[in-house]
Write a structure and sequence with these properties.
By secondary structure, the chain is mostly helical. Helix content is 76%, strand content 0%. Helix 1 runs antiparallel to helix 2 and helix 1 runs parallel beside helix 3. The radius of gyration is 14 Å and the shape is elongated.
Length: 93
């Protein structure tokens, strides 16, 4: 495995884990409690965590597109402070 491929694997795995950590640390507004939003955020966090651990432990090669999309989603989640419902509404309109 070349250095470039190892860097792509590492960047992709870390981006997934940062996204999962940010979703796990999201402070929900208890005044507007919605159980569907909480389930969606928890499921997305679990999927990101599983994907990050899978990429880092198995060290499978990833494409530059996969790495780019992972970094883009990580940036969007961190910028929205973990509130992916806001992202969902922004993309929907």
């Amino acid at each position: 495995m070349t250095f470039e491929m190892a860097a792509l694997v590492w960047v992709t795995g870390v981006a997934h884990l940062i996204s999962a950590f940010r979703l796990a640390c999201y402070q929900r507004d208890e005044l507007r409690y919605n159980w569907r939003d909480r389930i969606l955020i928890s499921l997305c966090g679990a999927v990101f965590c599983h994907a990050g651990i899978d990429v880092l432990l198995t060290f499978l090669p990833v494409s530059p597109w996969h790495a780019g999309v992972s970094v883009f989603s990580c940036v969007m989640i961190v910028r929205s402070s973990g509130n992916i419902i806001v992202l969902w509404h922004a993309f929907k309109h």
